UniProtKB/TrEMBL annotation:
Coiled coil: none
Identification of the protein by name: Transcriptional regulator, TetR family protein
Keywords assigned by UniProt, alphabetized: DNA-binding, Transcription, Transcription regulation
Domain HTH tetR-type: 23-83
Organism expressing this protein natively: Streptomyces capoamus
GO-annotated molecular function: DNA-binding transcription factor activity; transcription cis-regulatory region binding
Ranges annotated as DNA-binding: 46-65
Superkingdom, natural source: Bacteria
Signal peptide: none
Length: 211
């Protein structure tokens, strides 16, 4: 006689069909929004185009995201989470050398700016003063700037616990601002940005930037 195992009540339960469909729809819309923004800039992204490419009705998109700005905010937040996950991994690879970790993190951020088609499209358009996604990347409290600052400040707390919290906060703020400035306005000095940002950050921390 065959034994039938009852489902494990402690195991994860599948999402209800409506919840699963909504998650899939959201991901499709954001994936197409990212592709369109990378192709021609966020200013040219239209909800009608997203609906057509994602095979979703416009009312469904508006219900999920509120408006076009809501799509942009959700897209930037998703990109930010993925970027910060990778950045945290880079920092942790060099936990035994604070200056080396900072150099690697800045180099990673600049490489993303140059190699990530979505970020590249946003930054390129921003230099021409046209891209409406830029505020989400820099000045508004929820996305990249504050999230990166919090990540770095917390990481500094684990690798430099002897430094005062206020100094760690100032150092994280400085490092993020300088890195973003190089992403937005690259110059001949940008090639040396990882070293100079690391040196300035270590100076604020009062830690020798030994190589």
């Amino acid at each position: 006689m065959r034994n039938h195992r009852s489902p494990d009540p402690s195991g994860p339960r599948p999402d209800p069909p409506r919840v699963a469909w909504r998650r899939q729809m959201r991901e499709r819309v954001l994936a197409e929004a990212r592709a369109l923004a990378a192709e021609s800039g966020w200013d040219r992204v239209r909800v009608a185009d997203l609906a057509l490419r994602a095979e979703v009705s416009r009312p469904s998109i508006y219900k999920e995201f509120g408006d076009r700005a809501g799509i942009g905010r959700a897209l930037v937040l998703r990109e930010t989470e993925e970027f910060l996950t990778r950045l945290a991994a880079v920092l942790d690879e060099h936990r035994d050398d604070l200056a080396a970790a900072l150099r690697a993190a800045v180099a990673h951020a600049l490489a993303e700016a140059g190699g990530n088609p979505f970020i590249g499209a946003v930054l390129t358009a921003a230099r021409g003063g046209t891209d409406a996604l830029l505020p989400f990347l820099t000045s508004r409290p929820e996305p990249v700037f504050t999230s990166a600052w919090q990540l770095l400040a917390q990481w500094l707390g684990t690798v430099a616990p002897g430094v005062a919290g206020e100094r760690r906060s100032e150092a994280a703020d400085l490092a993020v601002r300088l890195t973003i400035s190089h992403m937005l306005l690259p110059s001949p000095l940008t090639a040396d940005a990882p070293e100079r940002v690391a040196r300035a950050t270590c100076a604020v921390l009062g830690v020798p930037p030994a190589r």
